[in-house]
Each structure stands twice: as structure tokens, then as C-alpha cells.
Amino acid sequence: xxxxxPEKKEAGPGLLLLVxxxxxxxxxxxxxxxxxxxGRWAVPVALAIAATKAGLIAAIYMHLHERRGSAxxxxxxxxxxVALLAGLASLESATRFEPTRPPGPFRVPxxxxxxxxxxxxxxxxxxxxxxxxxxx
Amino acid sequence: MSLEPxxxxxxxxxxxxxxxxxxEQAAHVGMWVFLATEVLLFAALFTAYAVxxxxxxxxxxAAREHMKVGIGTANTYLLVTSSxxxxxxxxxxxxxxxxLATFLLLCAVVLGLGFLTLKGVEYAAHVREGAxxxxxxxxxxxxxxxxxxxxxxxxxxxxxxxxxxxxGVGVLSVLTVQTAWGKYSGRYHTPLELGGMYWHLVDVIWxxxxxxxxxx
Lengths: 136, 216
Known about the structure:
heterodimer, A: mainly alpha, 0% strand, B: mainly alpha, elongated
């Protein structure tokens, strides 16, 4: 651990207020855009606005602009791993053949009120002798 | 076998912690490592959302019709405003204005409690409708494949987030009392910065949860 002395360049009230106004404005923009039919661009646009807000909060409110070296590196690593995990997993899901996708989920029939009741005896198969292990 | 210690005991006031600036840097790095693990926890949930959204695109797009968009949006404004309050509280302490900082932190706590209250109202409405996770799903107006998965993800994502809001409100309450007692000053306020960073992270996560579950 290096004993690096962080150079202090603290955010003034003007910058804090500017970021706050930007956050509220971008929140309003996200809500307004949800009433516009953007089709396949709806999710990327919403995520881009959210990422902008997250960047502003991390840089100014979470003091990353005052830090050098390790703290921004850790933050960037976290973002990279989120992108890798979510990106690659959804890419894999999106490039599957249609029949390999699960059809469900459907509603499961309710379990009986008595809990784990034994299953009814299996119907005898024609042409086969009855299984002595299954008969009571 | 001898029970004598192999090395002499630690000398008190050892100088290996370095300067105040180095300690502050170490505290911030440690907090960022913790926040990165929190991000990875939520990354797993966002990944599950992404995968199932790819599998059931129509269901996930139509599900917002059955969400309380007004409550979700109000909660977004509450969290963003409380983040602004915390940022100004840290600035106030750096300017030695602890009275103002205490007031701002108290505002942030109240806004956080408001978030949790609205979340509770929203959960109650979903329970009444039968929009429940997994096999308890019974929302008759929305009987599509994948709808129960959507509401499972909704309850897990917002539930884990609400748990973080609860912890954040607790942390901010302690910091409010400590600030009011004059524990922090322009010279020493690292715990206030770290607690504030946790609260900001909770806000950042909601900024992604809100559009994905309520808007798009």
C-alpha cells in the first residue's frame, strides 16, 4: 500500500448543485422517454441515461475525482465485470436456437393439503406381468 | 513446548499507519473494494434479468402495465434528493458547518424512510393483486409465460435493494447523531464520506432498477 497523499480538490457547492440538478433533470427525461415509443432502443437509451447519472454520482458525490490510482481502478473493475457478466450471459441467451429455449414457466398444480400423499398405483401395462415390487 | 511469544509484543503508537492522508486513502480504497462486491452482488441479479428478458421479450415489455409506475418514479426522486442532501452534508462538514450538516443528514434519513414506506405500500398492492413470485403468482390479468419470472425478479431485485436502503438509513442515522455531537470536523470526517458513499451506491443501483422494471 503506497502512502500516496491524495491531492485535495474538493467539489464546491456550485458543482454539487449542478450535479443534483442534472440528476433530477435526467430522471425526468427517463420518465418522459418512457411515454415515447422507442422500440428496440428503449432499453439502451434508458441504460445510457442511468449510466450517465451513475457516472456523475461516482465522480463527484462519491469523491472519485479527489482520488488517484487505486480507488478509480477498483470502481472501473467493478463496472467491467458487470458488463462482462451481463453482456456475455445475455449474448449467449440471445444466440440460442429457438427450440433450446424453455417454453415455461407455467403454473405448477397446487400441492394437496395433506402434503406428500403417496402416488396412486400405476396402471398395469398390457402384455407385461405386474411388477411384484409395486403391488401392495 | 515454550509458550513464550516468538517476537516482542506490538509497540503501542507504532508509526506504520503513516500520515492522516495515507490512512484516509486506505479507508477509501477499502470502502471501494466493499462497494465493488456490492456491485457484483447486484450484477448477478441484473444478469438474471437480462437473460430472462432475452427469453421473454414480449412479457417483460408488457409487464410495466402492471407496475405501480407512479410509486416507483416518486421513489426515484426521493432517493436522488436524499443523495443530494448527503453530498451537501459532507460539504457542510468540510466547511465546519455541522448544524447544517446534521439537518441535511436528517433530511436524507427521512427521505430514505419515505422510500421504504412507499415500497411497503407497493408490495401490499402487489400482494392484494396476486402478483407474487414463482409458484404463488396469481395475477389473472397477465397470465403469460414468463410473467411469474418477471415478478420473481421484481421482488428479489427490489427486496435486496430495499434491504440495502434499510442498512443505509441505519448508517445515516448513526452518522446524523455523531455529526450532531460534533464528532466530525473539516479535519476529520472520513466515516461520514464512507457512509455517504454507501448511500450513493444504493441510489445508483436504484437508478438502474427503476427504468428496467418500471419504464422499458
